[in-house]
Amino acid sequence: MAVYIVLLGPPGAGKGTQAEKISEVYHLTHVSTGDLFRENIRENTELGKKAREYTDNGLLVPDEVTIAMVEDRLKKEDCKNGALLDGFPRTIKQAEALDEMLEKSFGAKVTIVPCIDVDQDALVARISGRRMCKNGHVFHVVTKQPKVEGVCDVCGEPLYQRADDNEETVKTRLNAYNETTSKLVDYYSPKGVLKTVDGNMSITDVTKAIFAAIDEAI
Ligand code: AP5
Ligand code: MG
């Protein structure tokens, strides 16, 4: 039975960081909508042109665009055993669309939704020190330094600071989470798949808590 994990949590909570570990251990393809948008923006595709005005300003990309992109991605061969969704869904409409596409295309359901809960002040410190590579591997100037400064440990690509990791845009992203995405807690909770995890702990301890939740669900 295919496994579909939805990682929920505010900007900077550690979704990308934890996704690297989960995908490795559970052999699930990491599907990050943020990474997919950034890749399309870098390659200047039509999708990238549409997404950029939203991502640069910390606003949610319209549902139609986002849902179509995820539907295409989940149909690829590397998702045939399921997927680890990071940053999708972010609206009730996206959550309903995901349920529908899993049911229709794969006869499956969302398996578990770990929600990484982190204090708002810590989020800003995490985001402002983040560095990442174009393949989505995540580092931090204090808490997760690469072996060689400015270079990704995993793929050797240069590390950069994201265009939306500035104070003004972070405020808008946090607002979008608090006003819209946090409502997904009430969407998934009655389905019995939501598992809130304390994300204020060390990266390793958060990983342990998420693994325990996944092991209980699968
Ligand atoms: P996206 O790229 O998903 O950004 P986000 O949701 O704002 O989340 P982040 O990637 O900033 O944080 P994260 O939780 O992955 O944290 P990370 O692991 O990097 O989306 C970008 C934009 O795309 C959106 O604003 C929107 O415009 C658009 N978009 C994407 N999906 C969409 C959708 N579904 N619908 C509409 N629009 C969409 O960690 C952060 C830092 O903290 C790192 O430096 C890390 O090393 C450090 N860290 C992690 N865990 C810990 C820990 N436990 N202790 C100490 N440090 C830690
Ligand atoms: Mg991320």
Characterise the protein shown here.
- The structure is a single chain.
- With 218 residues, the protein is an alpha/beta fold.
- It has a single domain (3-118, 180-217), classed as P-loop containing nucleotide triphosphate hydrolases (Rossmann fold, 3-Layer(aba) Sandwich), CATH 3.40.50.300.
- The protein is built from 9 helices and 7 strands, in the order βαβαααβαβαββααβα.
- It has helices spanning 15-26, 33-42, 46-55, 63-74, 92-106, 120-128, 167-179, 184-188, 203-217; strands spanning 3-7, 29-32, 82-86, 113-117, 130-132, 138-140, 194-198.
- The strands form 3 sheets. It has a 3-stranded parallel β-sheet, sandwiched between helices. A two-stranded parallel ribbon has the order 4-7. A two-stranded antiparallel sheet has the order 5-6.
- A hairpin with a 5-residue loop joins strand 5 (130-132) and strand 6 (138-140).
- Helix 2 packs across helix 3.
- The chain is globular, with a radius of gyration of 16 Å.
- The mean pLDDT is 97.
- Bound molecules: BIS(adenosine)-5'-pentaphosphate and magnesium ion.
- BIS(adenosine)-5'-pentaphosphate (AP5) binds at residues 9, 11-17, 33-34, 37, 54-55, 58-61, 66, 87-90, 94, 126-127, 129-130, 138-140, 143-144, 164, 173, 202-203, 206.
- Magnesium ion binds next to helix 1.
Brief synopsis:
The chain is α/β, with parallel strands linked by helices. 46% of the residues lie in helices and 14% in strands. It has a single domain (3-118, 180-217), classed as Rossmann fold (3-Layer(aba) Sandwich), CATH 3.40.50.
